[in-house]
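Handout, page 2. Input:
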Amino acid sequence: MINIFIIDEYQETKNILIKSLVAGGFDVTSIENGFISIKLVHDKFPTTVSSKLNIQNSIFPSIPRLHKVFEFIELNYHQKISLKEVAQAVGYSSAYLTDLVRHMTTKTVNDWIVERRIVQASILLLETNDSVEKIALKVGYQNINHFYCQFRYYYKNTPCAWRKMQLSKV
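Output:
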């Protein structure tokens, strides 16, 4: 969470700042005594995932300048894709795209690809009886061990244990 202190008495200025923060992918959590508290909307994964979740709107921030980047990731996350391919698809150099995405979201293009894959894997873990290996392949991982490591990083648990824990809550 980040706190911003505003030294401006005009409400119009505060409203413009708040609209800009929301458009930039932040969630305004409170406004008190001149402080605006914000956080990145998709800073953490949910502990449970709904099958009615609209992935395009749920994990990618609404940043018009990056819409094509996120659209490309959404359409191709399930196969092997690289930064170079994303950059070519949106007409930027790899270096420029890296800097742009990191500056606007604090994450890299690869972070977004991984996050999209992990969210889809968690949905498949809950909605299917497929093996973890099969799910890892479906969401674009060629190396199962790499999938396990990344899943554990995001959910602090193995895919099997996470699935069991989530299904026991239902």
